TrEMBL record:
Domain called UBX: residue spans: 320-420
Identification of the protein by name: UBX domain-containing protein
Source organism (scientific name): Medioppia subpectinata
Residue stretches of biased makeup (Low complexity): 35-53
Biased composition (Polar residues): 66-75
Amino acid sequence: MSGSDEQIDVDMNGLDDHSDRNESTNHCHTSDNISSSGSSSGTGSRRPSLSSTQSDESDNQRHESSPTSGVSSGEGSDAELMVDNMIDSSDLHSSGDTNRFRAEFELKYGSTHPDFFVGTYNQAVDAAKRELRFLLVYLHCESHEDTDQFCRSVIISQRFIDFLTQHNVIFWASSVNYTEGYSVSQQLRESTYPFVALIALKNNRMTVVRKLEAITHLEPLLAQLNASVEHNRSSLLQELREREERNMNQLLRQQQDIDYEQSLAVDRERERLRLEEKARLDAEEEAKRRVELEASERLERMLRLREYLVGELPAEPEPNDPNATHIVIKLPNGPRLERRFLKTECIKYLYYFVYCNKDAPLKFAIRTNFPATNIPGHSPRLEDFTFADDHNRTITSVKTDAPEPTLLDAKLGSRELLLVQDLDA
């Protein structure tokens, strides 16, 4: 009867497939079975073929055990069994064995028992590793003489159930007569029954930190389990701190990434607004430049038109010509213009004359003083002329078929005072 730690590296990839094994075969050995080394445990040995070193260790542990409890001390051995990824992947998604074992167990011992983990052994190991919990494995051997007493005095006892609950232990159980239970028994290397193994995360590996065999009484089993839990709790707490630190660092990196992305987004938005504002200002500047250019070109053409229209004016008649009219024109800013025109001349020449004066507005109307009447026609317009692509040096008047009114049509007398009105004012 023993309670020990062992270290044996396990590789389930080399394990024989026992799926075709007759599950009714009895894999347990009672006290009538004698080991090949000539020793007997008193309760039966599961493996007579253990190495001499392991047999000696087992014998020593039995000699050191209490004669009443059959429990050895020996926590913290440098020999520990690694249990990561032990069972063949073909069993990973089958929970049929554990469900069947639970049903058979409840049929015999009732519904008062620990909360059996529903799932495969590998899933239980993964859950314990993921949740940083202890995993207690119970291998049930129906034919062993101590199994019934162990189930009744330990497994279904309220104190055992409370212990598992108090320490948040995952409890996985299976019969060694089932394929998965038998495979687990091989890997955990039990030597007799009842058999329980406490597994925990240690040095980032799932490790058997205590194996308890041939212990049939509650008190010594709880004592050893409690000692192992207390002894190995620091490993879980250390892993918890490391996970929290990793999570904190991950959260910090994530927050830094978020802050960085937000900063980039702010920078991108700022750059977008800057480019939009630049584009707007550039567009405004371009529009202003075009307006100024068009205004400059228009002004240039209008000034060039003045020079052109001077040459278009008809000759001024003699002062004593009876067909002439003497016209005095008052500009908006005060200066006066005087000229004689034949009454038969077109009114447009009157407008040409005013337009060619540098003090005259570029867009204007002419009216009589009294009574106030507008003189027909309008100031010269650029659209009434064509400008050749030679810096506006060649100008041509646009001809129309409509008759042009004369000064006589405007009923102007021999002497008239006319006023110029600035239409842009």
